[in-house]
Amino acid sequence: MEQPIIFDTSDGQQLRINMINSWFKNHYEELGLDAPAKIVKLSLDGGFTCPNRDGSKGTGGCLFCSESGSGDMASSLTGTPGSESSDVLCDDLVNAMHRQIQLLSEKWPSEKYDVKYLAYFQSHTNTYASVSELRQKFEAALKAPGVVGLAIATRPDCLPNDVLDLLSELNKKTFLWVELGLQTIHDETASAMNLCHTLADYDDAVRRLIARGIRVVTHLILGLPGETREMMLASVHYVCKKKIFGLKLHMLNVVRGSGMVQTMPDYIPFESMEEYIDLLIAALEIIPPEITLHRISGDAPRSTLIAPEWSYKKRTILNNIHREMRQRNTWQGRRV
After folding, report:
1. What is the Cα–Cα distance from 245 to 214, expressed in whole angstroms?
2. What is the pairing mode between strands 305-307 and 254-255?
């Protein structure tokens, strides 16, 4: 009988997926921390835009992207980008993080947990600015109380050499990963979704980041229009051949304010939760066990969600994924 890989038993369950929270439990020293501690991401809107919104590559943004740049839960800065003094900017970021901490305090109360934070620059393209502006914002975030690292979401075509130099510098003094929004390896899908970048851009970005020792987390969306099950699994298989640190997988959400509402308002990515879970487990089985999973579902605010109508039920989806994996006696990496 095959013996499953169990990645975490600390919460009383046998977790068969290498989730990032479990990874943190075994790698406190990489963040300069003593165990135990709870690492929480603080989602921030740093006031950036994207090259397919400002006209340099396109307009309107990715068709599936919300008006907030897919950072609906992120706290925004209140100042004017690029014009703040460093002291004002630091205060602004600390205030934005404090708002996030308040949102998360019920789930992770500080009196019960030793909580530390990653400043997660989530909304839009967080390397699409001058190096001086990026340095100000990233370094200000690192000065906030309890922050032990950075997570920076960006596009694969927005990493010029001077930005890579800055990221490399930061990587040497704090915990850091760069999250690349690839979404699909199929350029025809990328073009239809108005991504305005290609698989070649991704390949180049991963190569240059890894050459500098920077952790890469790749983001893929399952359920994009026109993609078959085989195409989606091909995307997963392709990125797992890279030396990436982590992977984000979630179903497409059709949300109000996105381009998809105008172009394909009746599109439903998955007919049922069971269909999505079956595909996701097939994907997990071909992901090497050393790759961390940062997301395996996808939730949008219920007030903006159109389809799938059940995707806001994040806890139900996750519980069903874990239960189904136990019933199938399968685990991440089983078919690698």
Report:
1. 9
2. antiparallel
For residue 214, the enclosing domain spans 20-328
Token pair recorded at residue 169: 């510098």
> What's the alpha-carbon Rg for the chain, to the nearest Å?
19
Overall domain count for the chain: 1
Is residue 9 assigned to a domain?
no
34-82 pLDDT, tens digit each: 767 789 999 998 889 999 999 999 998 999 987 754 545 555 555 444 4
Is residue 5 a contact partner of residue 16, using CB atoms and an 8 Å limit?
yes
DSSP per-residue letters across 53-96: TSSSS-SS--TT--TTSS-TTPEEP-S-TT---HHHHHHHHHHH
CATH number for the domain including 198? Answer: 3.80.30.30
Give the CA angle between residues 122, 124, 127 to the nearest 5°.
85
Calpha distance 125→248 (Å, rounded): 17
8 falls within a domain? no
User: Closest Cα to residue 118, out of 90, 139, 143, 147?
Assistant: 147
Exposed (0-12), middle (13-18) or buried (19+): which is 244, by Cβ within 10 Å?
Answer: buried
